[in-house]
Recover the amino acids of this structure.
């Protein structure tokens, strides 16, 4: 049997008021939850306060802890009340029927005790205002990856697999990813369906 870390506190960000005027560049709001003393992974979800799905002009990251908006139509103007919820992976660990933790620590998935800390929410209020009369809509922003790609390092003796994306476009256009690996194209394999790069073990440029 194992004795996993017990979460003593899981704190959501304070409620936040966010203003955006149509005609500005895309805007991003990032948030962080705090857990002590553990380091469980988190996943995030968001819905409007009335239970409806988020508007199409909003991109929400379930893993990255950020919201990106880019309203471009006057019909997007208005107030949006969003409930963001963070959930820790300890819930799955403590409630799994196949868990190997001590019996005394196990938790019912249907009726977890109030003392079991695994979920917290906060309210994000977004106010989108209409553009000035002189504003001209230009729907030609570049597509982007979520999360943003970063430099990667690997050992040439080991197989390396790295996925990118998914890729998004604010205007809803189809996105095709075409990488340029330069000289590395001799040994780098690219899966265009999943945007995944694979480098076989012992790859070499020679």
């Amino acid at each position: 049997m194992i004795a996993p870390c017990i979460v003593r506190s899981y704190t959501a960000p304070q409620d936040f008021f966010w203003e955006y005027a149509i005609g500005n560049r895309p805007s991003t709001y990032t948030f962080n939850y705090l857990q002590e003393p553990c380091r469980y992974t988190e996943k995030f979800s968001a819905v409007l306060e009335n239970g409806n799905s988020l508007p199409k002009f909003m991109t929400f990251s379930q893993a990255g802890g950020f919201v990106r908006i880019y309203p471009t139509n006057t019909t997007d103007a208005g107030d949006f009340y969003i409930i963001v919820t963070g959930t820790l992976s300890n819930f799955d660990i403590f409630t799994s029927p196949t868990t190997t933790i001590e019996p005394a620590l196990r938790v019912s998935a249907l009726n977890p005790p109030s003392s079991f800390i695994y979920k917290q929410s906060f309210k994000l209020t977004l106010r989108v205002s209409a553009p000035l009369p002189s504003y001209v809509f230009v729907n030609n922003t570049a597509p982007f990856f979520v999360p943003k790609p970063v430099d990667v390092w690997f050992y040439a003796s080991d197989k390396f697999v790295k996925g990118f994306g998914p890729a998004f476009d604010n205007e809803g256009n189809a996105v095709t990813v075409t990488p340029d690996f330069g000289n590395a194209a001799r040994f780098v394999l690219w899966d265009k369906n999943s945007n995944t790069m694979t480098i076989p073990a012992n790859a070499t440029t020679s």
The chain has two domains: 9-129, 144-199. The chain is about 5% helix and 35% strand. The chain has a mean pLDDT of 87. Residues 144-199 form one domain.
